[in-house]
Design brief:
11 helices, alpha+beta, 5-stranded antiparallel sheet, single chain
């Protein structure tokens, strides 16, 4: 899906928002005549434009303090969540002295401090006086040509940086509360396996089964990266506590049975033979095993952690004039739509989570 720049942006967009790069609440909307509005951070000078849906961004400049992040996201459509994740990672690497994921010699050269963001100078009056017109955002060619060349999946990066970019570019934690629905005319579907369905990381070697209507035979093996797969398995505090209580209770029951056998004279502690040892072992195994089986089954009734539930709900299926595949991650929804384009019923639709659940 090709993103188109949002031409007009309300000044209120920045209210309550922090810069995804430096984390400071110093964002401001910049209006330029005949060009798309862009958002500038007054603290770190990072700047970006938005797509028409205002849920993807393209950075034209990134603070020189975040060279690895700049290499990853400059002049590519991505999400602000992905930029924030990369910048935080680079900041932590800088603090603990570890090497960032992208080496310094792989970082594309950024403009000097005197170069205005996106290659535009204010309202262009100074350039007009010099007989020059202000250049489009990013300072290279026409904006529509640049967007077409820089759409996700079509990169002009060099070979050395593209491998690192594949691992983290376009990676984003999906926005809670919304889904991107793709409707197919059939229940058979092709699920792209090159990226994680939840966060778009590569590789995505793990699978999570999503059954349709409780039918395990009609299920979809959704690809997940190692990190998201681990998150989906994390127990809640209630589950952890219940599991510990189950094991302790089982040990207690086993101990009571063994002590009861001793008190009842079934086992003579002064003359313990093979038969006595077998009896003690049997009572211990029965006491522990049966109790653990019963109590651990109750443990499964507790819901998993909130984060695990979020990952496990990365896909929601609904039978409605075809089969609706409601993905949390827009990027994966677009990949899924392309992989099944011969069976599409309508376009990709963004809906609220509640609408997808109740409709």
């Amino acid at each position: 899906m090709e993103h188109q720049p949002l031409k007009t942006l309300d000044d209120g967009y920045t209210a309550g928002r922090a810069c995804a790069v430096c984390g400071e609440s110093t964002l401001s909307v910049i209006h330029v005549e005949n060009l798309p509005d862009y958002v500038l951070c007054m603290n770190c000078d990072s700047a970006f434009i938005l797509n028409q849906a205002a849920d993807w961004a393209m950075y034209g400049s990134i603070s020189n303090d975040y060279p690895a992040t700049g290499q990853m996201v400059l002049k590519r459509w991505t999400t602000l969540e992905a930029v924030e994740t990369m910048a935080n990672s680079e900041r932590i690497s800088e603090q603990d002295g570890s090497e960032p994921e992208v080496e310094a010699n792989m970082v594309a050269e950024l403009g000097s401090e005197s170069t205005p963001p996106f290659g535009i100078g204010g309202n262009g009056s100074g350039m007009a006086e010099a007989g020059l017109a202000p250049t489009p955002p990013f300072g290279i060619g026409e904006l529509d040509e640049f967007v077409a060349e820089s759409s996700n999946g079509g990169s002009s990066l060099d070979t050395d940086s593209s491998e690192a970019l594949e691992k983290t570019a376009d990676v984003s934690e999906p926005e809670p509360g919304h889904r991107y629905v793709v409707t197919l005319a059939q229940k058979t579907a092709s699920l792209p396996s090159e990226r994680c369905a939840h966060c778009l990381r590569r590789p995505a070697l793990n699978k999570l089964l999503f059954a349709f209507g409780g039918d395990q035979d009609l299920g979809y093996q959704v690809p997940l990266c190692e990190s998201c797969h681990e998150r989906a398995s994390v127990r809640s505090e209630e589950q952890k506590t219940s599991k510990v209580v189950a094991h302790l209770s089982s040990i207690l029951v086993a101990g009571v049975l063994i002590v009861g056998a001793l008190v009842a004279g079934l086992v003579n502690p002064q003359q313990i033979g093979v038969v006595d040892l077998l009896l003690i072992g049997t009572l211990g195994l029965l006491g522990y095993g049966v109790t653990a089986f019963i109590l651990l089954r109750r443990t499964s009734r507790y819901p998993p952690s909130e984060d695990a539930q979020f990952v496990r709900s990365t896909l929601r299926l609904r039978d409605h004039e075809g089969l609706d595949f409601g993905w949390r991650n827009r990027g994966y929804a677009e990949l899924f739509s392309s992989a099944n384009e011969d069976y599409l019923l309508g376009d990709l639709v963004r809906v609220s989570d509640d609408d997808a659940k109740n409709s």
